[in-house]
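Dock nicotinamide-adenine-dinucleotide; give full complex structure.
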Amino acid sequence: MQEKKGIAILGSTGSIGTQALEVLAAYPDYFDLQVLTAGKNADLLIEQALKFQPNSVVITDESQYQKVKDALWAADIHVYAGQDALCQVVESTEVHTVLTALVGYAGLKPTIHAINAGKTIALANKETLVVAGELITNLAKEKAVNIYPVDSEHSAIFQCLVGEFHNPIEKIYLTASGGPFRGFTHEQLQSVTLEQALKHPNWSMGAKITIDSASLMNKGLEVIEAKWLFGLQPEQIDVIVHPQSIVHSLVQFEDGSMKAQMGLPDMKLPIQFALTYPARFQTDFPRFNFMDYPQLTFEQPDRKVFKNLDLAYQAMNAQGTAACALNAANEEAVAAFLDRKISFLEIGQLNEYCMQSIPNVLHPKYEDFVATDAQARAFVQAQLAK
Ligand code: NAD
Ligand code: MG
């Protein structure tokens, strides 16, 4: 019998994490769940651990360690706490693939540890590539580690490239739903609420990425993610708004031919493909019906009104730590918006102000990313305190 694939899920209690567990549960003979981790949600982590019986779990919120420990000791599951424990559990010899489904900059360090330990990466945590794309892709090359995309657009590009890896890409188009505020003017955006921003038309996701989708920051982060995953220049990456979210992205080759990957919006498919590549496993996910979508439409994004998308292109062109600063500012600004401390438009304003103010370090090392991240967060916090 074929050996099972050992999986670690960082961020198992989130939107991607819980959907990944559904995928794993469907193929018990193929996957062997080794590690589960959560930030704060101890109750769900305990429930998942009792059901899936991993070797180890991590709760990064140390104040909940005892609770998780007490609940799992009889099941003989190792329990660890704190951010650094993430870096250790991914190195376990039983782990083959690490699914990075935690949110934000916190994903960077454990991903570096996983690559150093030679683990395959199924990458949902796009912030890692936004912050330190060059460092991560160079390290992955050095360690001969594959990074398989989970983000639906990047999975689409990857699926289009299967069998084409030796053919140069002329251009890619990342599709964007446009979010709940598609077509809004600057004036209309002035009065939008948190509740409206949290209502994504096509996808159900964690709070941070849902706000990023409404502000087009998510698409900006994805542009940078694509640059690093597929080795592209900024001018080779275009964004096109496609409100139905059926065409998940497109590749244009040098002969002018275009390939698109399509399907109903369901993250379980890209999660599964990242874990089973190059195989495709049979599923009972709902199938696309053309008659339900007589029209698939496309339009230009408004980069003036949704300035975050433009800021991402600026950061990508500036290189160095510019995207790291933008990402940190955005994480702080989105958290403040979720706390009802700032308005929706102030997210983009803070991001822009921070990017203009934090010095860009060219040819950064890991320590430069750590310093820039801290500097940018402090900058935004100082603005918020004014
Ligand atoms: P989420 O908020 O639903 O879940 C995040 C998970 O990470 C939770 O398990 C949480 O406990 C954990 N976590 C949060 N902060 C942490 C920290 N500081 N340290 C350790 N663990 C922490 O988020 P999500 O929507 O599942 O997104 C996860 C990642 O996947 C993000 O980078 C997001 O951009 C990306 N992504 C998500 C979707 C989606 O459909 N949800 C699609 C594409 C990409
Ligand atoms: Mg996406």
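Observed: DSSP finds 16 helices and eleven strands in the chain.
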